[in-house]
Design a protein that fits this description.
The radius of gyration is 26 Å and the shape is elongated. It is α/β, with parallel strands linked by helices and about 500 residues long. Helix 11 packs parallel to helix 12. The protein starts with 8 loop residues before the first strand and ends in an 11-residue tail after the last helix. The protein is built from 17 helices and 19 strands. Helix content is about 40%, strand content about 15%.
């Protein structure tokens, strides 16, 4: 499929409706003609992915998404495919009613869905039940149909949005289609790139339907997908002092590994110097296994203070704990007013003692930590990750990375990027510590907090995808260090990049 001119731009449902109206006006066509274009794009996708399929079953709802499905049925029938068409109800609305008539005019039979019935025999199911407007759980009859489609074991092509998935937020308030391929129309939907969408969308394609570039110029996207990037080449006369000094603060008893991972990832991401302030008992082991780290035992604020003076950026929180030792170091580090990456127990302490940040700061919470920072439940965070990350950024006056499937990056002005990389193997211990060190290293090398967060999240996730080429299960955080170095230098690192 050819690249869409605005393939990285993501929109809300309200914005998508504006784009739809503007597209019709710019093209000078009817809503039904735009549906024909969507149906044609869907048929092209179907034949690319399943060229041997001869019998398909299309499931249509009452609205425009169902209209796309009816017209796909018309085109598929004309192309010689056997088409079974199942509708949720006996009527359709607006342009979808015309599309339904077009299907029936060609002697097409519409089978009304009966929740007690079995699915028609087919090689492929097409989901055209709900479009972008669904923001609630599907009704009981539709939910039963979705469950049967999911249990069928057959491949599923979703039109525009997998039914049941909220295209604004990525949440599934009830049951939702698990698609193998989703062909989306006109513009990117932000909810298809984060949260639960990771399990519902499958391969995502965007069909522009011939909409001219001018249509997009008047609607500013709500968010953008990150683009793959690396740091520029270094000057030949560079020395380690030119690339910043990261101080990792953490590693309470039993958690030395967290501090080491953050420190080592900061080195692999290009920091000139990396020190680790940790429990004195960890010093020998860390120096023996990674001698490039400058490990210092600290027992409280007085021994931390001289290390803070020499550092240019702080990575505060990996393995820090929330007991007296960690709390004292946390307070002292924040009072130093240095550029900062705050993670793990650094965030949990912030939830207990909130403050806004006046120095360049990046917060990197997972959904549980985000919930504590906002005083709400984790489920509420996941219901609208976009609103949550923006509120965190506003409340704490910092750039915020909300980690998870489709990590989000927001700044206090409302700007938002979405990470399109990463995999389930990265849901393992130490991955967040790596990200902390990477972002801190990028800050130390002169990136702004926004640049460091976006580039750091992208490098971290892309390194994870490369490391997972040998399998996602059993992926270790340290497996990312070699591909991280390659990607940071603009090298392919063995492939596996997106976009």
């Amino acid at each position: 499929m050819s690249a869409h001119p605005c393939h990285r731009d993501l929109y809300t449902v309200e914005q998508l409706r504006l784009l739809d109206r503007a597209a019709l006006a710019a093209l000078g066509i009817s809503g039904q003609e735009l549906m024909y274009r969507a149906a044609s794009a869907a048929l092209n996708s179907l034949r690319r992915h399943w060229p041997q399929a001869r019998r398909i079953c299309i499931h249509c709802g009452p609205g425009n998404n169902g209209g796309d499905g009816f017209l796909l049925g018309v085109l598929a029938h004309e192309a010689g495919l056997q088409v079974e068409l199942v509708a949720l109800g006996s009527t359709s609305h607006g342009d979808a009613a015309k599309a339904r008539e077009a299907w029936q005019a060609g002697a097409g039979r519409v089978q009304l869905w009966d929740a007690q019935a079995l699915l028609p025999e087919a090689e492929l199911h097409v989901d055209a039940l709900y479009g972008i407007g669904l923001n609630r759980a599907p009704e009981a009859g539709a939910a039963r149909l979705i469950e049967q489609i999911n249990r069928s074991g057959l491949p599923v092509l979703a039109l525009d949005v997998p039914s049941g998935l909220n295209s604004d937020t990525g949440d599934c308030p009830g049951t939702a289609i698990r698609a193998d391929v989703t062909v989306s129309f006109i513009a990117g939907k932000r909810g298809l790139h984060t949260g639960r969408a990771a399990d519902q969308v499958g391969v995502l394609e965007l069909a522009g339907l011939g909409v001219p570039d001018s249509v997009y110029e008047h609607v500013r996207p709500d968010a953008q997908l990150l683009a793959a990037a690396a740091l520029p080449a270094r000057a030949r006369y560079a020395n380690k002092g030119n690339h910043g000094h990261v101080l990792v603060i953490g590693g309470d008893y039993g958690m030395a590994g967290a501090a080491r991972l953050a420190g080592e990832s900061a080195l692999r991401a290009g920091a000139g110097l990396v020190s680790v302030a940790t429990r004195a008992e960890h010093g020998f082991a860390l120096n023996a296994t990674r001698p490039e780290l400058m490990v210092r035992g600290v027992d409280g604020p007085q021994t931390l203070a001289p290390l803070l003076e020499r550092a240019s950026v702080l990575a505060l929180g990996p393995g820090l704990g929330q007991a007296a030792w960690g709390h004292a170091l946390w307070l002292t580090a924040l009072d130093a007013n240095k550029p900062l990456v705050l993670d793990a127990d650094g965030l949990n302490l912030l939830a207990r003692e909130p403050r806004q940040f006046g120095t360049p700061t990046v917060l990197t919470p997972h959904p549980g930590e985000a919930a504590r920072l906002l005083g709400i439940s984790t489920a509420e965070i996941e219901r609208d990750r976009f609103a949550a990350v923006r509120e965190l950024s506003r409340r704490y006056a910092a750039v915020v990375v909300l980690k998870g499937a489709g990590s989000l990056i927001a700044d206090p002005d409302g700007r938002l990027d979405v990470c399109p990389w990463g995999n389930p193997g990265m849901a393992s211990a130490g991955m967040g510590d790596l990200l902390t060190g990477i972002v801190a290293a990028l800050l130390a090398q002169g990136c702004t907090p926004w640049q460091a967060a976006g580039l750091g999240v992208g490098l971290h996730a892309r390194a994870g995808d490369l490391a997972a080429q040998q399998g996602e299960r059993g992926l270790l955080a340290s497996d990312l260090l070699a591909p991280l170095r390659a990607l940071g230098n603009g090298m392919p690192g063995g492939g596996g990049e997106h976009g």
